[in-house]
Design goal:
28 strands; rod-shaped; 8-stranded mixed beta sheet; 539 residues
């Protein structure tokens, strides 16, 4: 460096002192993120260690379900949560992925059931009202299987009976479901003891199979001889004692129900085992009826109107119901150019197979049974339609013996057996009235009326002539007859000369008869006097 005066010489500077660098120490600012990371890692590890298995549940709809919010609960305890929801490939269902807790890993077994709990109104009542505020959740019924499972099909409705309920299940077979639904009550002596848990149509379509659950301790009353029947609606009967109304409860009238009981006069018997099958009767009377055995198909051909006869009508034998009508048809007879009305019915001969006088009624299908039918038909066994109710004009089939009917035969080898019939009394009366009406229709009432009118005119003319011609002459004749009667009366009086002369004549006749009597007595004593004369008389 220079200046006008010359170069400037810098002063002497001290030498810098160089100190070695100290070791690096972390700042306290980094401690907090480090601790947070450690805590997060610990939570992740804990979550992994505490998490249970992941399962997939298939539902028809994901209504009310939300990923990350919807819980899985068992007895109101959280045991998992919904992770994701996605559609299946065919778009018919949704797959809900659920993460269970470590404590709930034993729920991932085959017979565990899942369903969505939401507000519902059913035959068993209202359920799921608590979800109105908290939202829907997935309910669980714990299974008891030892086989693990991670893919489930969810139930669309809550199960009526859960696995932790004690009791017995039974199977019922009936002809119709009636008004029964899942959850319908089961009654024993009008006390609700269980409910219907399922039903299905038989494979052959001839009936319905139901599953019922009877809770403990009421399951002990289900015996091997118990009878089951529909207790739905109102059972109204009219018999000799009047009207009888039977109902189980108001709920059964609306939603239907079932009932069971042992037959009258019999104990409950041994307790029925689990899943035992029973017959379900249409009503209590049907259920309490003794077993009928196999029915015999019978056909009766009627030549009259079947109005008022319906399928199910009774077949009656002197007050005993032998069966019911199963089919009503119509057939044309080309030979007679007429229609016949075949009525097919099931008859249960076992209802008559009661022992009496040391012998039993032969079983149908046996030679003795066929021979019995032929002998009964020969003695007048016939079918007849009768009116069972005058108000509704309902008909039933009566089977009885009619001794004064034309002879008939029966072919017992046919199936079904065709039994002869006769018209009922009312039909016979109608035929007789119709025959009388036909005969009366042939009477010429118009000609008779004309002739009667002419006869009445002639009679009127006759009476006019009698009044003008005959009556005056008859009046004169009656006057003369009256005079004659008066004269006869005067002649026959006691003080009349005729009466005196008659009296004297009678006295003379009496004396003459007395003399003749004396003469006859004398001649009887002296018959010789007729020749010699009276003794003492001179010759």
């Amino acid at each position: 460096m220079t200046s006008p005066q010359g170069p400037i010489v810098p002063p002497d500077l001290p030498e810098p002192e160089i100190e070695p660098r100290r070791a690096w120490l972390p700042s306290l600012v980094w401690v907090i993120p480090l601790i947070a990371a450690l805590i997060g890692i610990g939570l992740v590890v804990k979550s992994i260690l505490n998490s249970g298995p992941t399962i997939t549940i298939s539902f028809v709809s994901a209504e009310g379900l939300e990923p990350g919010k919807t819980k899985v609960k068992y007895k109101d305890v959280d045991i998992g949560a919904v992770k994701t929801i996605k559609l299946t490939k065919d778009h018919t269902h949704v797959q809900v992925e659920v993460q269970l807790t470590k404590e709930a890993e034993d729920f991932a077994v085959k017979d565990t059931r899942f369903w969505v709990v939401r507000p519902r109104v059913g035959t068993s009542g209202v359920s799921g009202l608590n979800t109105l505020l908290s939202g829907a959740y997935i309910g669980v019924d714990a299974g008891r299987s030892q086989d693990g499972e991670d893919d489930f099909v969810g139930l669309e409705t809550p199960p009526p009976v859960t696995g932790d309920q004690r009791g017995h299940r039974f199977t019922l077979r009936g002809e119709s479901l009636g008004s029964i639904d899942i959850g319908s009550p089961v009654y024993y002596r009008r006390v609700q003891v269980g409910q219907v848990v399922g039903f299905s149509l038989d494979k052959d379509g001839t009936g319905v199979t139901m599953q019922v659950f009877v809770s403990a301790p009421y399951d002990q009353y289900v015996g091997t001889n118990s009878r089951w029947w529909h207790a739905s609606g109102v059972d109204l009967r009219l018999d000799s004692s009047g009207f009888t109304l039977n109902t189980q409860s108001l709920a059964t009238v609306i939603t239907g129900g079932l009932a069971f009981q042992s037959p009258p006069g019999q104990p409950a018997g041994a307790q029925a085992p689990d899943n035992m099958t029973f017959r379900l009767g249409a009503d209590e009377t049907d259920a309490m009826r003794e077993p009928d055995g196999q029915p015999v198909r019978v056909v009766m051909n009627f030549n009259q109107s079947l109005r008022g006869l319906s399928v199910g009508a009774q077949v009656d034998f002197r007050g005993i119901v032998l069966g019911q009508v199963t089919d009503i048809g119509v057939e044309y007879d080309p030979k007679a150019h007429n229609f016949t009305m075949p009525v097919t019915m099931n008859i249960y001969p076992q209802r008559l197979m009661r022992r009496g006088r040391g012998a039993a009624v032969p079983a149908p299908g046996t030679p003795e049974g066929r021979d019995l039918i032929q002998r009964l038909v020969a003695h007048g066994l016939r079918g007849q339609l009768r009116t069972g109710n005058l108000l509704t004009s309902q008909l039933y089939v009566a089977v009885d013996l009619f001794p004064k009917v034309p002879p008939a035969t029966v072919d017992t080898s046919r199936d079904p057996i065709v039994l002869p019939t006769i018209p009922n009394t009312l039909d016979e009366l109608q035929l007789q009235v119709a025959d009388i009406a036909k005969k009366l229709d042939k009477v010429p009432f118009d000609q008779i009326g004309t002739n009667l009118n002419s006869a009445l005119k002639n009679a009127d003319n006759l009476f006019s002539r009698l009044n003008t011609e005959v009556v005056p002459q008859a009046r004169d004749t009656l006057s003369a007859a009256k005079q004659t009667f008066n004269s006869a009366e005067a002649t026959l009086q006691q003080d009349s000369p005729l009466q005196s002369d008659v009296h004297q004549a009678l006295q003379e006749l009496t004396r003459t008869l007395q003399s003749l009597n004396a003469l006859s007595d004398y001649l009887e004593r002296h018959p010789e006097s007729l020749l010699r004369g009276k003794p003492g008389d001179k010759p």
